[in-house]
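Lab notebook, design round three. We kept the backbone fixed and only want residue identities now. Task for the bench partner: fill in a sequence for the structure below.
Input structure tokens:
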């Protein structure tokens, strides 16, 4: 197709599910461990239980996070972990962000490179 624009800018590789600041923070937290308790992630990301719950639901629906419920003694606990798909998506998202940061302005005459 003549005149078609080729999508080469790295922003096209960003993952829309992960790109939200809260979801990116959750995935980054989970990427550092095999699993983490819900309360640990909540406190690390600095959100409320309800906000974390909603964002984890979206990440779970995307296949990026797995939630496992259980007990420690008689107290209920929820552990969160990244799935293989979640780790891959996070790695690709970070690579796209890095590429964006490394991409110089290409508008002729508009940037001093």
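Proposed sequence:
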């Amino acid at each position: 197709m003549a005149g078609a624009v080729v999508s080469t800018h790295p922003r096209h590789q960003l993952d829309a599910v992960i790109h939200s600041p809260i979801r990116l923070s959750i995935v980054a937290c989970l990427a550092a461990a095999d699993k983490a308790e819900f309360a640990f992630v909540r406190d690390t990301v600095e959100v409320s239980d309800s906000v974390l719950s909603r964002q984890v639901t979206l990440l779970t629906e995307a296949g990026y996070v797995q939630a496992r419920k259980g007990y420690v003694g008689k107290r209920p606990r929820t552990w969160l972990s990244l799935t293989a798909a979640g780790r891959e998506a996070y790695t690709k998202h970070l690579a796209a962000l890095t590429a964006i940061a490394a991409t110089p302005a290409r508008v002729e005459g508009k940037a001093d490179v």
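Keep this in mind before ordering anything: Residues 49 and 67 are 14 Å apart (CA to CA).
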